[in-house]
User: Which sequence fits this backbone?
């Protein structure tokens, strides 16, 4: 969506495409002797995650002793930097697989830890029964939604991706639904209300009436990520929203999301989003010219309510 360099590969199904994005989805229809009938070989893996589902035929993942086959209803999860090596299985005339490439939000950590793995590739099978359609539909919806020409397309696609990851999480054998400790829930709310200020762990812990070390431990245990990383995630979500929907200057946005130093904010933003704040805004504007014109510079902020992932219910 944000590619500008004319010389770059624009087809994500072919080698050389740069996945410098938050989310890309697609379907790779590999047919014996067709143009896509080659092994996808990324020894260094990718910067983001890939979730992949076989919808037709058989694929083969890896070579040698760890090689395994995937059939319709099999899902795979590649974490960043995990080598990719997969293609059509020899005995099959085709291999169709749907996939979503994404950079996760911090609170997704729990859903991305699939216990059954081969060479760090998470494996899960939903079979070809009733779950097959539900999962395939989610992949299709993510892809279609992300391609829509509207400013909320990416947020809606991310929302659907969260649903897919939560459903995978639920289908992992042995995953019992657990509820988040009320103190951790209060912590998330407190942090979200104070995103603009740099309150430290001690103050948060005081507010929740726990010791800092106990809070840090409990938070990590329940949310799967440490407090500061979780806060950074909320800040980036809010910053993206403000850049995308308002004309508020970047320096002002930096302050609103808790960074006094605009340069530091830009560095963190670039690291997390893959573009600087102004490049991100420019890319959104180029893509949706009518967007910011119609929105007041200080629209309602979504920062009041934190994102909890699947661990908390509203209320
Ligand atoms: C495509 C592959 C697909 C996935 C994406 C990221 O080229 O066909 O399996 O790896 O790249």
Assistant:
């Amino acid at each position: 969506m944000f590619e500008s360099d004319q010389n770059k590969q624009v087809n994500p199904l072919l080698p050389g495409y740069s996945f410098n994005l938050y989310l890309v989805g697609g379907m790779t229809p590999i047919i014996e002797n067709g143009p896509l009938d080659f092994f996808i070989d990324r020894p260094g893996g990718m910067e983001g995650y890939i979730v992949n589902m076989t919808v037709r035929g058989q694929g083969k993942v890896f070579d040698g002793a760890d090689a395994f086959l995937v059939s319709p209803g099999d899902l795979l999860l590649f974490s960043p930097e995990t080598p990719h090596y997969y293609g059509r299985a020899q005995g099959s005339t085709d291999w169709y697989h749907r996939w979503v490439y994404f950079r996760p939000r911090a609170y997704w950590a729990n859903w991305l830890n699939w216990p059954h793995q081969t060479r760090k590739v998470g494996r899960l099978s939903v079979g070809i029964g009733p779950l097959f359609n539900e999962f395939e539909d989610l992949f299709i919806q993510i892809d279609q939604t992300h391609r829509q020409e509207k400013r909320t397309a990416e947020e809606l696609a991310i929302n659907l991706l969260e649903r897919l990851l939560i459903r995978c999480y639920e289908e992992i054998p042995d995953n019992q639904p657990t509820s988040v400790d009320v103190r951790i829930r209060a912590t998330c709310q407190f942090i979200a209300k104070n995103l603009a200020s740099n309150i430290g762990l001690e103050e948060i812990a005081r507010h929740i009436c726990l010791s800092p070390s106990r809070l840090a431990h409990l938070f990590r245990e329940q949310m799967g990520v440490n407090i500061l990383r979780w806060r950074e995630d909320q800040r980036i979500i809010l910053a993206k929203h403000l850049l995308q929907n308002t004309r508020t200057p970047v320096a002002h946005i930096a302050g609103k999301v808790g960074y006094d130093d605009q340069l530091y904010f830009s560095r963190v933003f670039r690291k997390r989003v893959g573009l600087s704040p102004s490049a991100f805004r420019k890319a959104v504007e180029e893509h949706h010219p009518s967007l910011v014109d119609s929105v007041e510079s200080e629209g309602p902020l979504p920062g009041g309510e934190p994102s909890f992932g699947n661990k908390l219910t509203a209320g």
